[in-house]
Write a structure and sequence with these properties.
The chain is an alpha/beta fold and 474 residues long. It is 37% helix and 15% strand. The strands form three sheets. A seven-stranded mixed β-sheet has the order 1-9-8-7-4-2-3, sandwiched between helices. A five-stranded mixed β-sheet has the order 10-11-14-13-12. Helix 2 packs antiparallel against helix 3.
Length: 474
C-alpha cells in the first residue's frame, strides 16, 4: 500500500484553534502495537508512520487537520485488512490436510470448513475483557455479529424449545429493533412466545439492555438489580437464560456487582450471558470486522446434563454464525479486546455525547425532546449517541434538518458526516424516519471519540438551531 506523507510545509493556513495532537500519538501507538504483534507489518507501516509524523508537526487549519486524521485512520484500517487478506487468501475455505492456514500473526488455524473455525486465541482475550467474579465460571465465544450471537443463543440455549407445543417464554426489557423483529419472527413460527415488557408472569428467557431507546425515542436506563430480583424471586420464576445485551454501553458495563448478589435463586440450570456487538466500541473506531462477543457465566457448583458451551458451538457451526478467516485475521489487531484501551476509547465517546446532551438540554426552543441517559437522575449514565426530536416532527422537517446540517457543516468547515451507526473516531448524524408509522421520527447525532474543533463546532451549531424560531428562519 502506498501511503503518501503530504508536504504540509507549503501550506500557510493559520488555524483559528490550534488542534490537539493527541490523536496522532494514539494512532502511532496503534501502529506500534500492530508491528509488535505482526513483524511483517513493519515495512508497510514505515511510510504510514512518516505521514502521521508529518501531520503531527504540521501547521494546518483544524478542519484540514481532522481530514488528515480520518485519512490516516482509514489507511491503518486498510493495512490491517491487507494483512488479514494476505493470510486468508492463500487458504481454501475447505483446506486439504497438508495445507497450512496461518493467521497474520503466524498462528496456525486448523479447520475442515471455514464455518467451523474456533477462534480460540481471540476468545482467550475475552477472559480478561469480561472476567468471572469469585464463585462463578465464564466461557467465551465469538460470532460473526451481535445479531448472529443473539440468534444462536436463542436457538441453542432457550429452554423447552424442543417441544413445539410449549415454546420458551421470552421477555425483552430493551428497545433494540432487530431483537424485537427477531423475537417477532420466532413467535410467528411458533418457536417462542414473547411476553409483554410489563408483566409478572414467569419467563424462561430474559433479555436485558442496561440502556435502551424505545420507538418513541425515549431513553431508558434499566435498573438491573430490580429486574433480576423481580424475575429471580423464586426458583419457579427464575429464567433459565438471562441475556444482557451491553452493546450500547460496551466495555464500560460491569456485571461483577450483579452476579453474586442477584442470581441466587435455587434453580440449578440457569445461565447468565453477556453479549454485545464488538464492532463499535471495541475496535478503536476502525470497524475492522463484524463480531459478536458472548460470555457465559455459571456458578462453579452448577452441573448441566448437556454442556451449554458445546450446544452453542454446534449452533454456531450449523448456522454459519462463526467468524470467517478474513474477520479472524483482521481482529488479531492487538487493540481488539484490550480492556483498558476499549474502556478509554468508549469513555471518550460517552463524554462527548453527554456534553452535547447537557448543552441541548438547557435550551427550550426548536427541539421538543433530547434523549440521553445522562439527562436523567443518574447523570453518570452513558450512551454513544443523542436522539433529538423537533417540535414540528413531520418527516419533511427532518429531511430539511439534515440538509441544514450538511450546509452549515460545510460552511463552518466541520467534519460532520451523514451516516448511521456510532462509535467512530469522527462524528455522524442521521434522520430516522417512520416506516408505516411504527416509530416516532428523530435525528440521531453520534459524536465520536475525537475532541476539539469539529466536536465543539457541532455542539455550537446544534445549540444555535435549537434556539432558532424555525428551521426556515435559521
Amino acid at each position: 500500500m502506498n501511503i503518501v506523507a503530504l508536504d504540509f510545509t507549503s501550506r500557510h493556513e493559520t488555524p483559528s484553534i490550534q488542534p490537539t495532537h493527541d490523536e496522532c500519538q494514539a494512532l502511532l501507538q496503534l501502529g506500534d502495537s500492530l508491528a509488535a504483534r505482526m513483524p511483517q507489518a513493519e515495512t508497510i507501516l514505515h511510510s504510514w508512520r512518516q505521514a502521521v509524523g508529518a501531520l503531527e508537526g504540521a501547521d494546518l487549519a483544524p478542519a484540514a487537520f481532522e481530514t488528515e486524521l480520518d485519512r490516516l485512520g482509514l489507511a491503518l484500517r486498510r493495512i490491517c485488512l491487507g494483512l488479514a487478506h494476505a493470510a486468508s487468501d492463500r487458504a481454501l475455505r475447505s483446506p486439504r490436510d497438508r495445507d497450512r492456514t496461518p493467521a497474520p500473526d503466524g498462528e496456525e488455524i486448523n479447520f475442515g470448513y471455514e464455518r467451523s473455525i474456533e477462534p480460540e486465541t481471540l476468545e482467550a482475550r475475552l477472559r480478561s475483557y469480561a472476567p468471572a467474579p469469585a464463585g462463578w465460571h465464564a466461557d467465551h465465544l465469538l460470532f460473526s455479529s451481535g445479531q448472529a450471537a443473539m440468534t444462536s443463543l436463542l436457538l441453542a440455549l432457550a429452554p423447552r424449545g424442543a417441544n413445539p407445543a410449549n415454546p420458551p417464554r421470552i421477555r425483552h426489557l430493551g428497545g433494540y429493533f432487530e431483537t424485537e423483529e427477531l423475537l417477532a419472527m420466532m413467535s410467528s413460527h411458533g418457536m417462542a412466545r414473547e411476553l409483554p415488557k410489563n408483566g409478572d408472569d414467569h419467563a424462561d428467557v430474559l433479555i436485558l439492555e442496561p440502556v435502551y431507546f424505545d420507538r418513541d425515542a425515549h431513553v431508558h436506563r434499566l435498573d438491573m438489580t430490580a429486574a433480576l430480583k423481580r424475575h429471580c424471586a423464586t426458583a419457579e420464576g427464575c429464567p433459565s437464560l438471562v441475556i444482557v445485551d451491553s452493546t450500547l454501553v460496551g466495555p464500560c458495563f460491569d456485571l461483577d456487582p450483579l452476579l453474586p448478589q442477584q442470581l441466587t435463586c435455587s434453580e440449578a440450570g440457569h445461565i447468565l450471558v453477556r453479549m454485545s456487538s464488538g464492532l463499535k466500541l471495541d475496535q478503536a473506531g476502525l470497524e475492522l470486522a463484524n463480531v459478536g462477543l458472548v460470555s457465559l457465566y455459571c456458578r462453579e457448583d452448577q452441573d448441566f446434563a448437556v454442556d451449554p458451551v458445546e450446544k452453542l458451538k454446534k449452533a454456531r457451526a450449523l448456522t454459519g454464525a462463526g467468524l470467517g478467516f478474513d474477520a479472524l485475521g483482521a481482529l488479531q489487531a492487538p487493540w481488539f479486546l484490550d480492556r483498558d484501551h476499549a474502556r478509554g476509547y468508549a469513555e471518550a465517546v460517552f463524554e462527548n455525547n453527554a456534553a452535547l446532551a447537557q448543552r441541548l438540554g438547557e435550551i427550550d426552543g426548536l427541539f421538543s425532546q433530547i434523549s440521553h441517559p445522562s439527562l436523567g437522575a443518574d447523570r453518570g449514565a452513558a450512551a454513544p449517541f443523542v436522539l433529538i426530536q423537533l417540535e414540528e416532527d413531520a418527516p419533511e422537517n427532518y429531511r430539511k434538518l439534515e440538509q441544514l446540517l450538511a450546509r452549515e457543516a460545510k460552511a463552518r468547515d466541520l467534519r460532520f458526516d451523514k451516516g448511521g451507526s456510532f462509535g467512530f473516531r469522527g462524528h455522524r448524524y442521521e434522520a430516522i424516519l417512520p416506516q408505516a408509522g411504527e416509530i416516532t421520527p428523530f435525528l440521531r447525532v453520534a459524536l465520536g471519540a475525537r475532541k476539539g474543533w469539529s466536536k465543539d463546532g457541532i455542539i455550537a451549531l446544534l445549540c444555535e438551531i435549537a434556539r432558532a424560531k424555525s428551521l426556515d428562519a435559521f
